[in-house]
Amino acid sequence: MALLERMDWYDLARTTNWTPTYVKESELYPPEMSGDFGIPMSEWEKYDEPYKTTYPEYVKIQREKDSGAYSVKGALERSKMLENADPGWISVIKAHYGALARPEYAAASAEARMARFAKAPGQRNMATMGMLDEIRHGQIQLFFPHEYVSKDRQFDWAFKAFDTNEWAALAARHMFDDMMSTRSAVGIGLMLTFAFETGFTNMQFLGLAADAAEAGDWTFASMISSVQTDESRHAQIGGPLVPILIANGQKAQAQRMIDIAFWRSWRLFSVLTGPMMDYYTPLKDRKHSFKEFMQEFIVNQFERSILELGLDRPWYWDQFLEELDYMHHGMHLGVWFWRPTVWWNPAAGVTPEERAWLEEKYPGWNDTWGKAWDVITDNLLQGKRELTYPETLPVICNMCNLPIAATPGEPWKVRDHALEHKGRWYHFCSEGCQWCFEQEPERYEGHMTLVDRFVAGMIQPTDLNGALKYMGLAPGEIGDDAHGYAWVEHFRQKPRAAA
Amino acid sequence: MAQFPLVSNFQGDFVLQMLPVDTEFTMDQVAAEAARHSVGRRVAARPGSVMRVRRQGSNELFSRGLTVAKANLRPMECIEVIWEPASAGR
User: Fold this and answer.
1) Which of A51, A251, A264, A496 is most buried, most CB within 10 Å of its CB?
2) Sheet strands (E) in B33-77
3) Taking CB atoms and an 8 Å limit, are A376 and B44 in contact across chains?
4) Domain contains A5
5) How far is the CA of A366 from the CAs of A51, A354, A481, in angstroms?
6) Per-residue model confidence as pLDDT tens digits over A111-157
7) Contact A337 B42 (CB under 8 A)
C-alpha cells in the first residue's frame, strides 16, 4: 500500500483540538497555564508553525545527531584535550556546563507545559519534540563533562551548580525560573523560545562552537553544534504566536514579555558568554569578538525578526547597543576579582597582546578597563597578590542578580538605580532591570540577592569563608587565575606602555 | 555606635561595593574605608587629593567631620566618594 506524503496528512494529524463536554474549556486549559489572553480558541487554531516535522522523522534525525556527537566523543577520548588545551578554554567549558546543563531540564519542563497547555495544536506538536530536545540537551551536557570529574572537581559543577546558592547559579536560576518555570504556554513560547532561543542560543552554541573548533576541542564543538540544530527548530515555536496576539489586540502584551526576556537574556550572556569569548578563549583561537558575534546574531538577525513579526524594537534598544561596548568587560573584571566565588578558573586575558586586541575591538579599553587592570598587574608584579582579592562583596542587582558595574576610569558610569517598593529598597544595575521589576513587582519582590542575604545575617561567618560555605564551594572547587598568574610575566619582559 | 551598611561608588572604580561602617564614623573615615576596597586594588591612588563623600546624584559634599549618624543616610544608601584636589579642601 502506498504511503501518503507527509504534507498530505500533517495538517489533519496535528489538528487535535476538540470541544470538551465533561469539563469546561477553562478547566482543560486553565488561563494561568495556557495564557489565553481572552483570545478565542478559533484564533489559536490559526497558529502555523514554520518548521514542520513528524515524530518518525524526528526520531530518525535525532538518532543520527546523537550518533554523530557521541562518535566524535568516543574517537577523541584519548586525545588528552583536557591536558593539552589552554586553561582558559577549559574554563570556558566548565562555566558553560555549570550554567546550562541543568537549565536544559527546566527547559524540558517548560516545553512540556506548552505540549500540554498550549491552545494552539501546532504549538503543542512542536513543543512535544522540543521537550524531547531539551531532555537530550540535559543528558548530553551532563554526560560529556562527567568523564572529566575524576580529573578536576570543578567539572562536578556541571551537575552541582543549580543545587547551590553560588551567585552565578543564583543569577541564572532567577532568570530561567522567570521565563521557563513560572510562565504560561504563551509566555514560554514568547520568552524562552522566541526571545532567548532565537536571540541568544545562537551566540552560545554557534559562536562558541566556532571558537571551540579553533581551540581544538572538537568534542565540545560537535556536541554544541548538535544541540543548536535542535534549538534552531524549536526556537520557532514562539514566532507564530505573535501575529495571533497582534491580530487580537494583544501586541503590547507580546512586546512586554519579549522585551523582559530579551533584556534578562542579554544580562546573563554578558556575564557568561562575553568573558568566554573576549578573555578566556586563547587569542589565536578567537573567531570574532563578543561584540561582533552579538552584532551578527542579535543586532542584525533578532532585530529583523521582531520587526518582521510586526513588533517594535524594545524601548531600551539604544541603551542595549551602548552596553555592547562595556557591560561584559565589567562582568569579567568582577568575576576575576571575586574569583574564589566561581566554579571555574577565570582567565585574566590581559597580556600585552590581548590588551592590544581588546583596544582594537573596543577602542578606549586601555584608558578605562585597562586602568583597573594596570593596578592589578602592578600589584601582582610587586608580589602583593592579597590586594588582587576583595575584602567585601559587590552590590548585586535585584533583577539580574549580577554586580552593579559599568565603565571605570575617567567616564565612571557606575550608578545605583534604587527603588523603594513596599518599604524595601531595591538596587538595580540599569533602567532595563528596574523596568523589568516594575512590570510585575509581586513576581520578584520577595527574592533576596546574595547581598540581601548577607545583610540579613543569613551568611555566617560574615567573611569570605562564610560566603564560600554558603555558596557550596569546597576546597578544590573554588576559582583561581586560570594560568596561575603566568601572564603577569609578560609585563616584566614588555612594559605595559607598549601594549 | 552601631554597624551601618552603605553602598560605595568610588570615583574611577567599576562596581558598587558593600561598605559596612559605624554610625560614629566621620565622612573622612567613611571615605578611607571605601578607599580600602578600591584604591590600590583597581583604582590608582591620587597623592595630593582629598577624598570627599556625597550622596549619589548630589553635587553637595558632606562636611568632612559629619558623622554617619547625623548625615540622615538610610541603610544601603549609595554614597559617592570623589577625589578633590587638596587645594580645594575645606
Assistant:
1) A264
2) 49-55
3) no
4) no
5) 46, 11, 21
6) 999 999 999 999 999 999 999 999 999 999 999 999 999 999 999 99
7) yes
Question: If you search the block for the grid coordinates 494583544, which residue do you land on?
Answer: A250
A369 contacts B14 by C-beta, under 8 angstroms: yes
pLDDT over 80 (residue B88): no
Domain count, chain A: 1
A448 touches chain B (CB under 8 A): no
- Residues of A whose CB is below 8 A from B7: 395, 416, 427
* pLDDT tens digit sequence for B36-62: 999 999 999 999 999 999 999 999 999
Domain presence at residue A428: yes
Categorize the per-residue pLDDT at A498 as very low, low, confident or very high, splitting at 50, 70 and 90: very low
Interface of A with B in 400-419 (CB under 8 A): 403-410, 412, 414-416, 418
The CATH number of whichever domain residue B48 belongs to comes to 3.10.20.270
Q: Write the residue in B7, B14, B36 that is nearest to A395 by C-beta.
A: B7
Q: Domain span at residue B54?
A: 3-88
Answer whether B41 sits within 8 Å of A388, measured CB to CB.
Answer: yes
pTM: 0.95
Gap from A435 CA to chain B (nearest CA, Å):
20
Task: Give the number of A-B residue pairs with CB atoms closer than 8 Å.
Answer: 98
Answer yes or no: is A146 within a domain.
yes
Nearest Cβ partner for B17 among A392, A406, A425:
A392
Taking contacts as CB-CB distances below 8 angstroms, the residues of chain B near A405 are 14-16
**Number of structural domains chain B divides into:** 1
Tell me, yes or no, whether A6 lies in a domain. no
Parent domain of A226? 55-498
Q: What is the DSSP code string of A199-265? A: IIIHIIIIIHHHHHHHTT-HHHHHHHHHHHHHHHHHGGGSTTHHHHHHHTT-HHHHHHHHHHHHHHH
What CATH code is carried by the domain that includes residue A274? Answer: 1.10.620.20
